[in-house]
Design brief:
Blueprint: H1 3-6, E1 10-18, E2 27-35, E3 42-48, H2 52-55, H3 65-74, E4 78-82
Antiparallel strand pairs: 1-2, 1-4, 2-3
């Protein structure tokens, strides 16, 4: 998605640390979910430091932002919302 289109979207920012198993080194990550302001559906995302597959989320495009927010907060990650 173009950056000019993203500036009109809402953003859900997820920050946290991830460990694959108990002896692995923790990795910090940030994920930005861009969603439509009216229907609150995810249309794009950007990951830094991790992939969606490693977190076990599966398909996120088209999911409700409320579902993702609840799922990520249950896993213990910090969640912030930016409304535009």
């Amino acid at each position: 998605m173009k950056a000019s289109t993203r500036k009109y979207m809402g953003v859900l920012v997820v920050k946290g640390t991830f460990r694959k198993h108990i002896f692995a080194k923790s990795k910090s990550f940030e994920i930005y979910f861009y969603y439509t302001p009216i229907k609150k559906m995810v249309v794009d995302f950007v990951c830094e430091g991790i992939t969606i597959k490693q977190l076990g989320l599966g398909q996120v495009i088209g999911k409700s932002i409320l579902e993702l927010e609840i799922l990520m907060s249950e896993k213990g990650y910090s969640v912030f919302r930016i409304e535009r």
